[in-house]
Amino acid sequence: MKAINNYQDLAFTLLSKMYRSEHQYITYLQVFDHKASSTKLKSLLFDLKQSTNYKLYLHHQLIRRLKSPLNSSAGEGMNGIFKEAFLVLNDVGTKNITETIILNTLLLASHYKLGSYLTLILYLRAIGFENETKILQKIINTEESVLGRINTRINEEAMLNAYQPQYGESVA
């Protein structure tokens, strides 16, 4: 990996990491699709894959405009979020809990990406790439929409499960 000596190096490294993280995300969405059982979650995963493909298209535009090399491998942030989920999923015995863990993981990943993109905007502004932040703002808007869809699905899941008996409770 190239040494990071200034904000441009830092911005380009973060852009590369986020580009590669979005590619990883698509792979993880496919794995989650195999683990999901409800049509609502499968539909959400399909929508997230489409949104991610759009964000990758915007990444290509941004990389081309900045003449930024892809100089970094994906960071461990995205991998760490999903590795932790897979460890927990190995011990899960019910479909409801599996889907809840998937939703939680998607929520964590979306927050991770959103924070990284907001930081990247600051770096690009610091080095004079104000016009290029417009493309990045489209990525952020898309990620915020993704976050909203995930939150909606979590709320639906919570309402559905609020009426289910908890462990050790009897059903009258």
Briefly, what is this?
This protein is mostly helical.
Main attributes?
172 residues, 5 helices, Ferritin
Annotated CATH architecture? Up-down Bundle
Under CATH at level 1, the class stands as Mainly Alpha
Total beta-strand segments = 0
Largest sheet geometry: none
How many helices?
5
Can you describe this structure?
The protein is mainly α and about 170 residues long. The chain has one domain (about 5-160): Ferritin (Up-down Bundle). Helices cover about 75% and strands about 0% of the residues. The protein is built from five helices and no strands. It has helices at about 5-35, 40-65, 75-90, 95-125, 135-160. α1 packs antiparallel against α2, α1 runs antiparallel to α4 (about 95-125) and α4 runs antiparallel to α5. The mean pLDDT is about 90.
In terms of topology, how is this protein built?
Blueprint (H helix, E strand, L loop, with lengths): L6 H29 L3 H28 L9 H14 L5 H32 L6 H30 L10
